[in-house]
Amino acid sequence: MEDLSVYYQMVEESIALLGVNPATVRTEKPGQWSLQKGSAPVWVDVFWMENNNCGYIQVMSPIIEVPQNNTLAFYEELLRTNHNLFGVGFTQYDKWIYIKGIREVDNLQKEEVTAMLNRVGVYADDYDDLFKQKYQATSFRKSDI
User: Fold this and answer.
1) Is the whole-model pTM more than 0.85?
2) pLDDT bracket for residue 139 (50, 70, 90)
3) Measured between alpha carbons, how far is 53 from 47 in angstroms, rounded to an integer?
4) CA distance 100 to 88
5) Hey, which bits of the chain come out as E strands?
6) How far, CA to CA in Å, does 5 sit from each of 11, 46, 77, 91, 116?
7) pLDDT tens digits along 10-30
């Protein structure tokens, strides 16, 4: 396993550029941070995958629970919206929709980390409210973890 501490530092520097003290948003697990952009939580993970022999950075935000009604229209809108997003996309895990960006840490630059944080945060803060209102869906709460 590669030492990922240089990437942890890069993430912390990017978080600081957002005006947030990285120490206040670290989780208990090394390589994880939990921020807030408006109404949207933004999670950052730097991790190693043994089976790929590679490190990754993932920035994601839970948007809403998959709505019970108008599900087909909802998924069609997500797919159409994905076409207009840059460097991230909507994804589903269990019953939740997320905006997620992920890449290998090889050749990662601090500017890319900052861009990922900004991109996921802005899109998440915009789309969580829009989809919640449009589809009467449940937004994410910390108790949903």
Assistant:
1) yes
2) low
3) 11
4) 5
5) 32-37, 40-49, 54-65, 89-93, 96-104
6) 10, 9, 39, 28, 19
7) 999 999 999 999 999 999 999
